[in-house]
Specification:
alpha/beta, TIM Barrel, eight-stranded parallel beta barrel, 13 helices
Length: 413
């Protein structure tokens, strides 16, 4: 019980706090991150006292160039006020000596004051190679010496397909039946990159640190960007980044399995959880993001992805996450050999989305796919105009979500 697959929450843009809290209570995650809403962080900590609650105060980009280690530690001690909440140190700093030295100093200052730290939070691809990790030896030693109060934060994203970066060059493992079940001898340049530092630690006789992937999901990465830009994408997205920008490509790869885009996102995250992160120093992967703090992050937002949320709840409540034996149907998120082409199990919509069946069938017979696509695009555009209050905009976006689920279900039929 309990899930490593959890959330990076943009705290000042939570469309439905009740649903968020219900989701967290159902999944009992190992860790949760909240940005810019300390009251929400405290509320979640009261709800989930055993969960590692991480608080990020933005802006924190380049914070090591703006505050001395003493000032930063003093600020965080005052900000957290003795709450059992972990402080997010930096966001995607460069792997420079200046950043590393600053982090070492705040770790040394934080330890006697009981401040809990999530250190680093480096971007996918940082540091550039495993040979860079010796520069962080002192930081890794402090992480090992203070395991109860310090963990390493990393960002790991796939690009286009969860198996991106498994080997050099463009992704080779596209169809789910080709996804490797043993990745120990693969390169893992994107998701699974934490193994670079694990190998270094073991080479010098040091225990690898506790790790939380504080941002996880899909984004662009520079090494395969030309390939990613060749993928199909919805007309409202200029490039391939967050999962929503892949809603045109994933059906081309996964429609034979009956996977909607949300089901495809879930299956890929669940695969990574089982195959890459299971039995490793990684304690949680925080999906970026629930809510979005600016339009730049809209295509990453899972707060309205109701089917995905239901699959994640089911997955968290499975007693084991190993593949089912041959001849038996695997649960959602796990695929036995005779389950390769099985469609997604029906996921009942929330009570407030249910309609009379005959009325829906009649409406469905009247609407073409072109009608649905046009209506969905219109509602999404209306939600983004800024001309309506938040309730109306949320209603437009919610109805577009309902129509997309209906379109996917009709396609399965």
């Amino acid at each position: 019980m309990g899930s490593r697959l959890s959330l990076n929450i943009h705290g000042h843009n939570v469309p439905d706090k009740g649903r968020l809290l219900g989701f967290l209570q159902a999944t009992q995650p190992h860790a949760v991150l909240v940005m810019d809403n300390f009251a929400l962080a405290q509320e979640i900590k009261l709800l989930l006292p055993e969960t590692m609650l991480i608080y990020r105060a933005w802006p924190d980009d380049g914070i090591y160039r703006q505050l001395s280690p003493e000032d930063w530690v003093n600020r965080k001690v005052a900000e957290l006020g003795g709450a059992d909440i972990w402080a997010y140190t930096t966001n995607e700093p460069g792997f420079s000596d200046a950043a590393l030295n600053w982090l070492v100093l705040i770790m040394e200052l934080a330890q006697p004051r009981g401040l809990k730290l999530v250190v680093g939070n480096w971007a996918v691809g940082t540091p550039g190679t495993d040979s860079d990790w010796p520069r962080a030896r002192r930081l890794l030693e402090l992480l090992d010496q203070n395991r109860a109060t310090m963990v390493l934060g990393l960002h790991e994203y796939a690009c286009g397909i969860i198996t991106s970066g498994f080997i050099g060059g463009n992704p080779q493992f596209i169809a789910p039946e080709t996804w490797p079940q043993d990745v120990h001898n693969l390169s893992l340049f994107h998701c699974g990159r934490f193994n670079f530092l694990v190998r270094y630690c073991r080479s010098i006789g040091l225990n690898p640190p506790r790790i939380v992937i504080t941002e996880h999901g899909f984004d662009d990465v520079s090494d395969i960007k030309p390939w990613a830009e060749s993928l199909a994408r919805p007309g409202n997205y200029l490039n391939i980044r967050g999962w929503k920008s892949l809603q045109a490509q994933w059906p081309q790869w996964f429609s034979s399995l009956g996977w909607s885009p949300e089901r495809a996102l879930f299956e890929q995250l669940a695969y990574a959880d089982r195959v890459i992160y299971q039995n490793s120093p990684v304690e949680a992967q925080l999906i970026f993001s629930w809510g979005h703090s600016s339009p730049d992050w809209e295509q990453f937002d899972i707060s309205q992805a109701l089917e995905l949320q239901q699959h994640l709840i089911q997955y968290a409540q499975q007693p084991e996450r190993r593949p089912a034996p041959v001849g038996k149907r695997a649960p959602v998120g796990e695929r036995s050999p005779d389950d390769r082409s099985a469609p997604a199990p029906p996921v009942p919509p929330p009570a407030d989305d249910r309609r009379d069946g005959d009325s829906v069938d009649t409406l469905g017979r009247l609407m073409t796919d072109d009608d649905l696509n046009t209506i969905i695009a219109g509602f999404r555009a209306a939600a983004k105009t800024g001309q309506f209050n938040s309730t109306i905009s949320s209603g437009f976006a919610r109805f577009a979500d309902v129509l997309e689920r209906y379109r996917a279900k009709r396609g399965e039929g």
